[in-house]
Write a structure and sequence with these properties.
The chain has 216 residues and is mainly alpha-helical. The chain contains 5 helices and no strands.
């Protein structure tokens, strides 16, 4: 089995001080060997070396026996430093492979096989993303909506209670005024009663004194 499938696709920067690491840092942009001096980037994201590592591992785990596309790419890579046209490199590599019975159809079929491996990895990734979305997003969105509903319900309760409290405060104010008015009237009536009864009591006392004085 071919080892280090990454090295068959990753191109080291010839001008860099150090070669590309076997385990690059996550999200470090790497250069794929599709076209010389061309970096492959996504229109919606960055190349993730951790993801690449998993994909290369899947290819390695499913490497076909015998000389297939991966062996062809390995042989092609040995010519990468030579100053010759790309077409010559492919033709030269194929010519060598054909001496052991390798045909163009075999290589193209091998490529399709590895593409299916990647498609299977893509399906697994899509399912994982769906599961993560359900756990980390959909469920939290539902929780958020429930909390918002709870806030609205409690806000309505607070509004209702506030109105009830306002009504009770108005009732208290009315009762306070009624109490003050009643107390004032009671005090006034009490004073009037005392004044009135004293008039009669004084008259009675005066008459008692006069009776005692005038009648013997």
């Amino acid at each position: 089995m071919l080892k280090n499938f990454r090295s068959l696709f990753i191109v080291s920067d010839e001008n860099a001080a150090t070669p590309v690491s076997e385990t690059p840092t996550t999200n470090q942009t790497v250069e794929l060997a599709q076209k010389p001096d061309q970096k492959v980037t996504s229109s919606t994201g960055n190349i993730d070396n951790d993801i690449l590592g998993k994909l290369f591992q899947a290819l390695e785990d499913n490497n076909q026996s015998g000389f297939d596309y991966m062996e062809f790419r390995k042989a092609l890579k040995t010519l990468s430093a030579l100053p010759m046209d790309e077409s010559i490199k492919y033709q030269s590599t194929f010519a060598t492979a054909s001496t052991i019975g390798v045909t163009l159809e075999m290589l193209l079929s091998s490529i399709e096989f590895y593409k299916k491996v990647l498609i299977n990895e893509e399906a697994n990734f899509t399912k994982a993303i769906k599961d993560q979305t359900s756990v980390n997003i959909s469920d939290k969105i539902t929780q958020k909506e429930n909390i918002l509903k709870s806030i609205v319900a409690k806000s309505e309760q607070i509004k209702k209670l506030t109105n009830e409290i306002g009504g009770l405060q108005t009732e208290i104010e009315q009762l306070t005024l009624s109490i003050e008015t009643a107390e004032s009237k009671i005090k006034e009536t009490a004073l009037n009663f005392e004044t009135s009864i004293n008039v009669i009591k004084n008259q009675l006392d005066q008459d008692a004194i006069k009776l005692k004085q005038y009648i013997k």
